[in-house]
Specification:
The complex is a heterodimer of chains A (about 190) and B (about 950).
Chain A (H helix, E strand, L loop, with lengths): L8 H9 L3 H24 L9 H16 L6 H25 L22 H17 L1 H12 L4 H8 L3 H23 L2
Chain B lengths: L5 H16 L2 H14 L1 H20 L19 E2 L2 E9 L3 E8 L7 E7 L1 H4 L4 H12 L9 E6 L5 E6 L3 E3 H7 L4 H20 L12 E4 L4 E3 L4 H5 L26 H4 L6 H17 L11 H10 L14 H6 L5 H8 L2 H9 L11 H12 L40 H8 L3 H20 L11 H19 L6 H19 L9 H21 L4 H21 L2 H19 L6 H20 L3 H13 L11 H14 L3 H19 L4 H19 L10 H21 L5 H17 L4 H17 L4 H20 L3 H17 L13 H15 L3 H17 L8 H20 L3 H19 L5 H8 L16
Antiparallel strand pairs in B: 1-2, 2-3, 3-4, 4-6, 5-6, 7-8, 8-9
Classes of the chains: A mainly alpha (about 190), B mainly alpha (about 950).
């Protein structure tokens, strides 16, 4: 039981759109619980888990919420903007937990043989990216969102373009800009 | 390297945009010229750009290797008799792997599709296997075989398909620069495959280019047949269809049909739509919603609301050159090739309303084949896609007759008109007007998506249409086709205004006026050319619609007159020429309401005659049983009114069977028909204090409750809907009338809820009667609950409403009518208040007025029952007032009357006993004991 009150998610998204920070926080924690719960459920039900991708998880979450809340629930594009951000959090958290715990830890996002995952992007790097992204979000939120969607959630350029109703080329260009910003920031900090 | 402040970033960002869009060469030149204007900026940019080169080399953020399961480790694993080789795809549903059969007996390549268990929902193993075996039986040269389906021991659902090595059909056509004819031929193969599946009762549901592959040898192969259905868990309809769209992303429902997006049932017509989108794409290079990109919300809106541009008209856009080139021709030639038949075929196949599309994939294919052979196609460009609606049948007394409505769509005024007029100038002007209108439609908000809830939008459409029509009317000048088109458009507008089957606000006066305008256009044509089929059709429709409007007003004479007119027009129409299936259905539908009109006039022989004629209309194919439920209901009502209660119950039950099946689609009009059916059965079983019934009150209550629930559900979805509320009032009244004898408080609650609902609707004559009836019914209960003042107030208000509906005061009173009930309730009120002289006087007056109606106690059972009941009440009043002679006289009269009926009806005694149940006396109930 996530304890989230889903009839308010629609309202929370509306408020967050209008810049209400506390609504945004409440929204993020609600989405976090929901995604976390869904991920656990999906993985628990498969021992040959071949396709739990972040995008699938997000789609499942959207469907579940849209169904529960009814026709006033915002469209996918708006939802994904927020959900992608939450996904980032989930992934970074998991990376941290994996580092901190052996297999069998309390938050397992995967039930695969974890030896396969050596050589994965490590927690530190993810953490830094996350922090820099937060900064970018304050400066140029559209760019940060593309990073969430593409890097953390795995949507393709085409999908993102469709979501944002822009051309694929625009998405690509924004992606490059975002990379420049992040790369710049990360290396500046590291070089201090 | 210095850090970038937010301000600096904002400043440099637009320049970065430009720089990133350039090639390396361009960039160098650009940077240096920028350097001359603003050196600091240029330096910054240069630094950022070199950073970009660096990070690109590093592959910064390119490798997503998070701790989420990925599939690389599956390669080489065996899965049943197959060995997995490599992943070849990833879709929204799951991942696809190339596999080879490893049992050595034969080498066969397969594609193994692993399905996300989340998407498979609660699909059980059996279900998966069962559906899989059904799909597996689909063998066709153009369908990729489904070899196996099941759930592994780990609980992983999987599908094993024939591996097809090919390109998506749109890419194939473009790469090979196939011309229009070759594309159509290739497409015909696709249609053949889908038709084969439909013949096996399998709907694809997910037709899109990536599911239609063409191999290097030019062979078409359809994939993923019915997979979406396979994945549906119980109670999860619709979710999976949205998951399998373009590129595996669930975000773009490009190939979804309107009904899929509004949650209506998916049928073979859904496949027709998707196929049409595919053909549109193959011929024009774009989606019917226009050149992209489209945000999902916009796409959904376009699919459900906007009529697509005709294929030939897409050649006017900017990229026509490249589109034509891929079709081995020029934009002009392509435009000419698409204009005419291909335009017409695609427009029909892309209709929003599934019933207006090609009825089958085969029909679609036939027209395409005719196009290839240069024969005339089956769709007349100016065919009026027939839409019928049901007008209100007043159902207070006697019972309403049900009819079935096909969805009313007013939006496609544009298509027919464009082609109808051959004069280019007018056509162009109209095109501009239509454009304007179409744009207006697009601007409307979400309400229109699906019924109910579309009232506001419909009203907007109506006012737009009227404006448009008035401006057009000046263009007629003897153009017959145009005149008929306009006439029909006025008819459709009248439908929206006066048709309470769809949510509307009951503007009956305006509807009548528009019907008159319509006949203004039709009548001259019919006078000149009495066998013109289209004119006859429209004239019939007008007569029918006037019939139902008259019914609304309670104008029985008018109703029957229009019914007779309609009946003779139908005869004329049916003798003109071979009639299309749609039109046959319409004729049957008209007969149902014609019979209903005679029902209102209590001419039961004619009721039976016209119902039989309706059944005799040879509606072919799948709709042969259409309206059977309605007709049987009519017959049941006729049986009821003539005293054959057992027969009536049987027939009514049979009719309910049909109506339940039809209402399964969830369409409001069909649901209301079903409510009607329950209402009738309820009345036959146990209607209280009115015509004779079987006295089975509990069964009756159950039926009324069902009708009530249906209507309540519809009313709650549309705050402006009248008809649902009308039905709530009707069934609420019946329930209250039954309940009040045992549980007055509950009865009062039902009355009051119904009153709340009927008051929500915009007042009209019909709603006023409904409200009055409820107030009258509740007045008894209020009195029995010792709320005498409230009872009197209710009665006063009821009379006010009846007065507003022009039913009171009256010299003649129809037996069992609302005004009868009100006057009787008034008399009973006097009686219970102890004013017996006044009561007796009121009863005498009531009886006089009933006789003046005139009541036909010799031949009409309803009249007999009503009079008998009134005499009974008066007799007991007289007895209480000490006038037993009077009382005896009345009772003797009553006996004689029923003796007369003894010879006519075997169950006359039973009916007499039923009629003795009175409402005036305070029932014996003990509220402490409950019901």
């Amino acid at each position: 039981m996530s304890g989230a009150n889903f009839s308010t998610v629609t309202l929370l998204i509306g408020a967050a759109d209008r810049g209400d920070r506390s609504a945004a926080d409440a929204l993020f924690s609600t989405l976090y619980s929901e995604l976390h719960r869904l991920a656990k459920r999906e993985l628990a039900s498969q021992s040959l888990p071949v396709t739990l991708s972040a995008t699938t998880l997000l789609h499942l979450a959207y469907l579940g919420m849209a169904e529960r809340e009814g026709p006033s629930f915002p469209d996918r594009a708006r939802f994904m903007g927020y959900a992608a951000r939450v996904m980032r959090g989930l992934i970074i958290d998991h990376a941290r937990n994996r580092r901190a715990q052996k297999r069998g830890g309390q938050f397992e996002i995967t039930s695969l043989r974890t030896d396969v995952l050596e050589g994965c992007v490590d927690y530190q790097e993810l953490k830094s990216i996350g922090e820099t992204l937060e900064e970018l979000a304050r400066v140029d939120p559209a760019l940060a969102e593309i990073v969430d969607l593409k890097f953390f959630c795995g949507f393709s350029f085409a999908e993102i373009a469709a979501m944002r109703a822009v051309s694929e080329r625009t998405v690509q260009r924004n992606w490059e800009k975002a990379r420049i910003y992040l790369h710049r920031k990360l290396h500046t900090e590291l070089s201090l | 390297m210095s850090t970038l402040s937010p301000d600096q970033w904002q400043a440099v960002s637009p320049y970065l945009d430009q720089a990133l869009a350039m090639t390396d060469d361009e960039r160098g030149a650009w940077l240096s010229s920028l350097g001359e204007q603003d050196p600091a900026l240029a330096t910054q940019l240069a630094a950022l750009l070199s950073e970009h080169r660096l990070l690109a080399q590093e592959g910064f953020l390119e490798n997503r290797r998070f701790a989420l399961p990925n599939a690389t480790e599956l390669a080489g694993q065996t899965f049943g008799p197959y060995t997995l080789i490599a992943q070849i795809g990833q879709g929204g549903m799951g991942s696809v792997w190339l596999a080879r059969r490893s049992d050595g007996r034969f080498e066969r390549q397969a594609a193994v599709k692993f399905v996300n268990s989340g998407l498979a929902g609660r699909a059980t193993e059996e279900r998966f296997k069962r559906e899989g075996s059904i799909l597996g039986r689909l063998t066709h040269p153009h369908i990729a075989d489904l070899l196996d389906a099941g759930i592994s021991s780990d609980g992983q659902p999987y599908l094993i398909l024939e591996y097809v090595d090919g390109a998506a059909i749109d890419r194939y056509c473009d790469e090979h620069k196939l011309d229009v004819e070759s594309r159509v031929r290739l497409f015909l193969d696709v249609l053949a495959a889908v038709a084969h599946a439909h013949a096996n009762l399998i709907v694809h549901r997910d037709i899109k280019p990536s599911n239609v592959l063409v191999t290097t040898s030019g062979e078409v192969k359809l994939l993923d047949f019915g997979i979406a259905k396979l994945l549906e868990g119980e109670g999860q309809t619709g979710a999976s269809t949205l998951l399998t769209h373009e590129g595996g992303s669930v975000l773009t429902p490009q190939y979804a049909a309107p009904e899929q997006l509004t949650g209506q049932p998916v049928t073979t017509a859904t496949d027709v739509y998707a196929l049409a989108v595919l053909l549109y794409l193959l011929l024009t290079g774009q989606h019917p919603a226009g050149p992209g990109p489209h945000s999902p919300a916009r796409l959904v809106k376009a699919i459900t609301e906007t009529e697509p541009l005709r294929p030939s008209d897409t050649m006017l856009s900017a990229n026509a050159e490249s589109v034509a080139e891929k079709r081995a021709t020029t934009p002009d030639k392509l435009r000419r090739m698409l204009r005419g038949d291909l335009d017409t075929i695609l427009v029909k196949a892309l209709k929003k309303n599934p019933q207006e599309r090609y009825a089958s994939v085969t029909a679609f294919a036939d027209d395409l084949r005719r196009y290839l052979k240069h024969e005339t196609i089956s769709v007349r460009p100016d065919t009026f896609a027939y839409r019928t609606t049901k007008f209100l049948r007043r159902n207070r007394t006697p019972v309403a007759l049900s009819t079935i409505a096909v969805v009313l769509v007013i939006g496609s005024l544009s298509t027919g008109l464009l082609v109808a007029n051959r004069e280019r100038k007018i056509a162009e002007r109209r095109f501009a007007q239509v454009r304007q209108m179409a744009n207006k439609f697009i601007a409307l908000d979400q309400d229109i998506r699906g019924l109910p809830g579309s009232t506001k939008v419909r009203m907007q459409l109506v006012s737009d249409s009227l404006q448009y029509l008035t401006s057009l009317s000046t263009d007629v000048h003897g153009d017959k086709d145009l005149a008929l088109e306009i006439a029909y458009a006025y008819v459709r507008v009248a439908h929206a205004q006066g048709d309470p089957t769809s949510p509307n606000l009951g503007q009956f006066g305006e509807a009548e006026a528009n019907l008159t305008r319509a006949s203004g256009f039709v009548d001259p044509i019919l006078a000149q050319d009495p066998t013109n089929p289209r004119a006859l059709f429209i004239a019939t429709t007008i007569a029918h619609d006037r019939l139902t409007l008259a019914d609304n007003r309670g104008d029985k004479a008018g109703e029957m007159k229009h019914a007779a007119d309609a009946a003779s027009l139908i005869e004329r129409f049916m003798s003109t020429h071979p009639v299309e299936q749609h039109d046959l259905y319409s004729m049957r539908y008209f007969y149902v309401n014609i019979a209903g009109a005679f029902y209102e006039g209590r001419k039961f022989d004619q009721v039976i005659l016209y119902n039989q004629r309706g059944l005799d209309i040879p509606v072919p194919g799948s709709r042969a049983n259409a309206l059977r439920g309605a007709i049987l209901e009519n017959l049941a009502a006729a049986q009821w009114q003539t005293g054959d209660l057992d027969g009536a119950v049987k027939t009514s039950h049979e009719s309910l069977g049909f109506q339940q099946a039809e209402a399964a689609s969830g369409h409001p009009a069909l649901l209301l028909n079903l409510a009607d059916g329950y209402d009738l059965e309820g009345k036959i079983l146990g209607r209280q204090d009115a015509e004779p019934s079987l006295g089975r009150r509990r069964n009756a209550l159950a039926d009324f409750q069902k009708a009530f629930d249906i209507a309540e559900d519809l009313a709650s979805k549309d705050s402006a809907d009248y008809l649902g509320r009308h039905y709530i009032a009707g069934s609420g009244l019946e329930m209250g009338n039954i309940l009040r004898h045992n549980d007055p408080e509950k009865a009062l609650a039902v009355y009051e809820h119904s009153l709340v609902r009927i008051r929500e609707a915009k007042p009209n004559a019909s709603s006023q009667r409904d409200e009055a009836a409820l107030l009258v019914g509740s007045s008894y209960v209020l009195r029995w609950l010792d709320r005498e003042n409230d009872a009197k107030r209710s009665l006063t208000r009821a009379f006010e409403l009846l007065h507003a509906a022009e039913l009171y005061p009256a010299d003649k009173v129809e037996p069992m009518s609302d005004i009868y009930d009100a006057l009787r309730a008034q008399a009973d009120d006097y009686a219970e208040s102890g004013e017996s002289a006044k009561a007796i006087d009121a009863y005498h007056q009531l009886l006089d007025k009933m006789m003046a109606w005139p009541s036909d106690v010799q031949n009409d059972l309803r009249d007999t029952t009503c009079v008998s009941r009134t005499w009974t009440a008066l007799a007991s009043l007289q007895r209480r007032a000490g006038r037993s002679d009077e009382a005896n006289r009345l009772e003797a009269q009553r006996t004689e009357l029923w003796n007369h009926w003894q010879s006519k009806l075997p169950n006359a005694q039973f009916l007499l006993r039923q009629s003795l149940v009175q409402i005036a006396s305070r029932p014996v109930f003990n509220s402490a004991a409950g019901h």
